[in-house]
Specification:
This protein has about 325 residues and is an all-alpha fold. The chain folds into 3 domains: about 90 residues, no CATH class; about 120 residues, Receptor-associated Protein (Up-down Bundle), CATH 1.20.81; about 60 residues. The chain contains 16 helices and no strands. The longest helix has about 35 residues. The radius of gyration is 26 Å and the shape is elongated. The termini are far apart.
């Protein structure tokens, strides 16, 4: 049995490395493609009949051409790419899905060798395969919280630049220079889009789609309304910054008061699984009754559903909208 597990692990490891290199592409081919692209850009303009140089921004869902073409026609990879971008992860959707599938399949195989029960192994493999997605959501929440914390400072720099007589594009560049990431990264993209010819409205709306925060949407709305109706933009942004700071302070105060309830929910939902795993390591024959006998399966499903209901109720209690 140990030899079989070792061989299976080696096979999965070799397949994973092969697929990673296949999806990453050959380095020399990438260098050659880059060289040809630079030559095409620096080459003199020819007749329009020879073709036009496409400089439009394109999303890359996979480094494999045919797979990227198929994923481009679907809507799910675009949402996944947006999620990865919001989490500031340099992953493609194809690599993310491949890693999740390999992790889930390998986990299913190891658990099935241990328990010899297919449905238990499948449920555990699905839970383990979703761990990368949970990691991405965690990174996304961290980026959003950092953006929300730094946004009032960014608005303050914009107000100072506007009062000094600078243009809106120059105010965005001031934010890029003075405020750290992730605010600087998003404002840099917004400024670059304007430099490449997009209107301010389109660039601002794109930034609000990348960062779906109510505070940023208030700022974008204030800027766009001022562009159409006129007024003192510096004064409008200053009042908006005050609202954002007050809202952020209230949000942190609410999180402090609900911290005990949120921690209680995670402990109560995770304790049964951890306790069951520990008992299985101590007495596997006794714990195997839960998935080898009908009454045990019923008890296991009832406990799982009750745990989810309890976690949902606790989350509804501690989640306060304002």
């Amino acid at each position: 049995m140990p030899v079989l597990i070792a061989v299976s692990f080696l096979i999965v490891f070799v397949l994973t490395i092969f697929l990673a290199f296949a999806m990453g592409g050959d380095g020399s081919q990438q260098v050659e493609k880059t060289r040809k692209l630079l030559e095409s850009v620096t080459a003199p303009v020819r007749d329009a009949a020879d073709g036009l140089l496409d400089v439009r921004k394109r999303e890359v869902f996979s480094t494999i051409p045919w797979l990227n073409q198929k994923l481009t026609e679907m809507d799910m990879p675009r949402r996944l790419q947006l999620l990865l971008t919001q989490a500031n992860l340099q992953w493609t959707p194809s690599r993310f899905l491949l890693g999740s599938v390999v992790l889930g399949a390998f986990s299913w195989y190891l658990i099935y060798l241990r328990t010899d029960v297919a449905w238990v192994s499948l449920i555990a493999a699905i839970a383990i395969g979703l761990l990368p997605l949970l990691f991405v959501f965690r990174k996304r929440d961290s980026q959003m919280n950092a953006f929300e914390r730094l946004l009032p400072d960014a608005i303050g720099h914009m107000v100072s630049a506007l009062r000094a007589g600078q243009s809106m594009n120059s105010a965005l560049n001031v934010v890029v220079r003075e405020v750290p990431d992730p605010v600087a990264r998003e404002f840099r993209i917004c400024a670059d889009e304007q430099n490449f010819g997009l209107e301010l409205r389109t660039a601002m709306q794109n930034m609000s789609e990348r960062v779906p925060l109510p505070d940023l949407q208030m700022v974008v709305t204030a800027i766009l309304i001022q562009r159409e109706s006129g007024g003192n933009l510096a004064e409008i942004l200053e009042k908006t910054a005050a609202v954002v700071r007050e809202r952020f302070r209230l949000q942190k105060q609410i999180r402090v008061h609900t911290a005990q309830g949120r921690l209680t929910g995670w402990i109560l939902s995770g304790l049964p699984a951890l306790l069951g795993f520990g008992l299985y390591l101590l007495a596997p024959d006794r714990m195997a009754v839960l998935w080898t006998r009908p009454i045990g399966v019923t008890i296991l499903w009832s406990a799982f559903i009750s745990n989810l209901i309890g976690l949902y109720i606790i989350r509804r209690i501690v989640k306060i909208r304002f």
